[in-house]
Structure of Chorismate synthase:
Amino acid sequence: MAGSTFGERLKVTTFGESHGEAVGVIIDGITPGLELDEAYVQIQMDRRKPGQSSVTTPRREYDKIRILSGLFEGRTTGTPMCIMLNNTDMRPSAYDDIKSMYRPGHADLTYEKKYGLRDYRGSGRASGRETAARVAAGAVARKLLERRGVSVLAYTTEVGGIRCETFEPDAIERNLVRACDPVAARSMIERIEQLSANGDSCGGIVECRISGVAAGIGEPVFDKLDAELAKAMLSIGAIKGIEFGAGFQAAAMLGSEHNDQMDRTGFLTNNAGGIIGGISTGADIVFRVVVKPTSSISVLQQTVDMYGKEREIVTEGRHDPCICPRIVPVIEAMACLVIEDHYKRQAALLDE
């Protein structure tokens, strides 16, 4: 399938479907000699796996990874690495009653128009289940970035119209929605649980902060660092928008307000979000993404079936009432892949 490969120097290809036997990823371009083990990757997998709490899907996947190649005696070999996760809690029969109907908000219609057929079992390749493979690859990229002194942190800042008012990094992994404000987190959880009880869902906003990136990383014109990050984020099914630094607020600012002035110590502000001209400035790279409400809801909706007949549909099954808590590690993973790929591009440029 075209479109399943991402990256230039650090290249990843994901495979598998939501209710198939397994999902996984092949990673090519990993620096040889990197100390790595399955336990390190598993930490990130456990952050994304389903069935974690009352605000995530009850599907029980342990997401236990297996590294099938590219690792020898605890070190990367530099050859392609294959990481696979078996699916263990599939229930494709949950879709039998609606397999001929196009679910609102899903890629059912578009996949069928493109390929002439579709996997109706939980969206197949279009399912959020595919992101498990991304998180595995992102963990490897994160390990590479650690050697460069680069860190990547994402966190929820808004859910269902409830916004964080404070930023407390230590609180992020201590609440069910991975919010940076523990007080707002409690209200967010109540909101999600209320909507879930009514069969509905909600969206939110996740912010990502990348620290330690050297100035000069990124390519000009078509491969700008912010453009590559935007593509990475928008390739995640639930993401519908992205902004960097001041973002859309720049529309109401003056040039004298938005420009990041400098003194001998560096930039005085970071309205550009750490990227100017598509190249990193050395300041933190900061962006925010819009996460849409989960499409699978048990509220009665209007649709049509594959024969053109108007129908009413209720999507049963096990689904996240809000995607924000589990999308945080996916966003971090994709950010790690982009940044490491661009470091490798820069190294290749300097070797020319």
Remarks:
- The two ends are 33 Å apart (CA to CA).
- Residues 5-351 form a domain with the Chorismate synthase, AroC fold fold (CATH 3.60.150.10).
